Amino acid sequence: ETGVTQSPTHLIKTRGQQVTLRCSSQSGHNTVSWYQQALGQGPQFIFQYYREEENGRGNFPPRFSGLQFPNYSSELNVNALELDDSALYLCASSSGTAVNTEAFFGQGTRLTVV
Amino acid sequence: AQSVTQLDSQVPVFEEAPVELRCNYSSSVSVYLFWYVQYPNQGLQLLLKYLSGSTLVESINGFEAEFNKSQTSFHLRKPSVHISDTAEYFCAVRSLSGTYKYIFGTGTRLKVLA
User: Fold this and answer.
1) CB pairs under 8 A between A and B
2) Contacts of A91 by beta carbon, 8 Å cutoff, 6+ apart
C-alpha cells in the first residue's frame, strides 16, 4: 500500500506566474484535501475533493483552484502568484468524508514565490 | 467556528525529562481532537486522536493526551522524552459537521537537549 505522494517537492516561481501541484492519494482513498502551511504557522484548509467534486472550501481566493481525477489523484492550481503564497502545500487523503476517518498527509510541496 | 490555541511556540527540555505541550480549543459544536507531529522537511503524521470514550488516549511511542471538556483542553504529555522526539507538534480539531476539515494550532516546536 503506497502512501500519499506529492510532486514536486520544491518549486520556485516568479510573482504573477501560475503553478500546478500534484498529489497521488493513498490506495483506496477517494477524498483529497489541500492545506497551506506558511512558515511558522499551522496548516490552513484550502479545499476538499470527494469523488471528483469540490466538497468544501476554506477562506482562499478563487485563484486557488483544484481538480480531482477519476483515479482520485488531485491537482492544486494557483494563478497570479503572490509573494505571500510562499508556503508548504500539504495534501491529505482519506477513504471518505466521515469525520472519524483518518486523513493521511503527504510530505508536501514547498513553493517559493520570488 | 473553531479555533485552536497552542500556548507555547517553543519548548526546550532535557532528554529523559517529562514534557507537556498545551492545547486549548474553542468550538460551538462538538469536535474530535488530534495531535500531529511534523519532523523537519516532512509532512504531518498522526500521533494520537480523541474521538469518544476514555478521555485519556495514548500513542505507541509513549505520548498521551487527555481530553478535558470543561477546560476545553487536550494537552500532550510524555513522561520521558528522547532526542528523536525533537519535532513540531500540532494540535487540531475536526468538526462533527460540515466538511470535517482540520483546524490546526500554530504548532509547538519541541527541542530535546542532550
Assistant:
1) 61
2) A4, A6, A21, A23, A25, A32, A33, A34, A35, A74, A76, A105, A106, A108
Taking CA–CA distances from A91, the nearest residue in chain B reads B43
> Counting Cβ atoms within 10 Å, is residue B33 exposed (0-12), middle (13-18) or buried (19+)?
buried
Alpha-carbon distance of B85 to A47, in angstroms, equals: 31
| Helices first, then strands: H and E counts in chain B | 0, 12
Does the bond joining A43 to the residue before it have cis omega, within 30 degrees of 0?
A: no
Instruction: Please answer yes or no on whether A99 and B100 come within 8 Å at the CB atom.
Output: yes
Nearest to B96 among A33, A56, A99 (CB): A99
Write out the three cell numbers for B102.
Answer: 482540520
Does B87 contact A at CB distance below 8 Å? no
Tens of pLDDT along B28-83?
888 899 999 999 888 899 999 998 888 899 898 899 999 999 999 999 999 999 99
Is the pLDDT at A39 greater than 80? The verdict is yes
* HSE toward the beta carbon, residue B22, CA cutoff 13 A: 10
CA atoms of A36 and A15, how far apart (whole Å):
17
Record the cell numbers describing residue B46, joined without a space. 498522526
Nearest residue in chain B measured CA to CA from A34: B101
Closest CA to B34 of B92, B105, B87: B92
From the number of C-beta atoms within 10 Å of its C-beta (0-12, 13-18, 19+), residue A16 rates as exposed
- Residue B12, classed as helix, strand or coil, is strand
Whether A40 and chain B come into contact, CB under 8 Å, resolves to: yes
